[in-house]
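Single-chain item
Fold in token form
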Amino acid sequence: MKKINKVYLALALTAAFTLTGCIDETFPESSTATAEMVSESPSALEGAVNGISSQMTQGYLVYGDQVNEIDMALPSTMIIQTELLGDIYPGIPDNVGYDWYRRYNTVQSIDETTDYSFIPWFTLYKFIKSANDIISVVDIETAAPAQKAYAGMAYACRAYEYYLLTVFFEPVENIYTDVSAVKGLTVPFVLESTTAEQAKNNPRVPHDEMIAFILSDLDKAEQCLADYESVSRLVPSLAVVYGLKAKVYLLDGKYAEAATYAGKAIEEATASMKAKPMTADELQDETTAFSKAVSSWLWYVHYDAENMGNLCNYVGWMSCEADWGYASLTQPCIDKSLYDHMAETDYRKAWFLNPKKNDYYNYRTCRDKAWIESAPDYASLKFRCLNGDYQTYSIGGASDVPVMRLEELYLIQAEAVGVSEGVGAGVAKLNSFMKSYRDPSYNYTATDLRAFQLEVLTQMRIESWGEGWAFPSAKRLQPDVVQNYEGTNAPTDDFKVNCKGIKPTWTLVIPQTEVQSNVALEGKNNPNPTQAVVGPTPIGTFAPAK
């Protein structure tokens, strides 16, 4: 049985660069593992599901080699979303070039020929390929309970991946690019049944059809996991399925449903997983904060010390304290205006360095006070080196990375209740969460719905800094983007852009290689946003429409 596990894991981790390649036969004739063998073997299916989890932290996943440093599987999508929001800047202006993700923030060089469309597209379709491999060999109506549960996890993973593809590639109307030719279109389906010939003429799916499909996958996942007692948060559980439904309904503007499923996710996670929001100590621990999973992390992935590289890992990108990786060169910082939104009593303010440094707060660090004094203003301490080891990447970077946290669901619930049941009800939910878990002095009182939604979005942006899960709500709400203002810490003119509604880069472009291999995409690509806005935008204004 061990032999089957190894062979199937290799298959689950293998996918080609084009969608045509992504639907190659799962079990080639030369393989000693057949679809029948795997479908009848709970241990083989378990290995395949665990393979998906491992794949999610696989460095250089798309290219298979050190070609581009943003090629780092799921964590890449988290950093991309934070950069798109404009919530993160390199803290050392002379080292801006070391921030490989900056193009998402600066509206430059992000067209269909660049890695900045290629990598997120093929990363997510590789994950879909691995989920399809499992789904294709399990009949959930007749499968034994163990096989059925593993199939449910695969359905949940596939749903999440199509959700992210929709978030990145479905166009939103804006004043900087013309999306009229592709409005309402998401991405092509590649399913377990899709043939190579079908992939060559595979159109983009309309929004409503995509949402219905994702929810259908989640219905199947719910059915499969309803009676399954989760033993690992490295794979989706029933609570995660409910949480994904909440995210999808929120994306679709179905607020009552989003509120319902956020509530169900919170209830299920609290009951079955004993989950609770991160405490002030967990948020600030200098050896484990955001590097070791805690109870609020309903779904997370893990870096294996034996298989990770020194540059292509999450801690190395996000922890200013690390002496290895690109964070040591760029020193990621929060946008000053977002930092200033936090009250002095907000526990999360200790994630970022105040300009007064140690005179402002006794920061906890695995380094020393001199390091704090020398670090840039607003530099992040949110993501720590595991065990405080800032010198050895295979120890300090062998971290856990959150995919879904309980805190996200509380904030989804607050906005969704505010829209569907009245602003007062939503404000009560928001105040309850914030007072209980983040800022005991917090007291939001506005009664305007739009203002309330933007306040929830701001709290999402703070809470998810570096994780990115506020981005879908920002794309939905179109809050305006202001990165050039008095006192901005945007490091160069390229970052100093102000956009009405959204940035044009908030809709990524389908890679040219995919358009060339799929005739249905000819004339149906998203518009190129490169140079649609050029910084600096004068303070107090928005970039003009194109």
Q: What stands out?
A: The domain at 2-273+404-521 is CATH 1.25.40.390 (Serine Threonine Protein Phosphatase 5, Tetratricopeptide repeat). The radius of gyration is 22 Å. The mean pLDDT is 93.
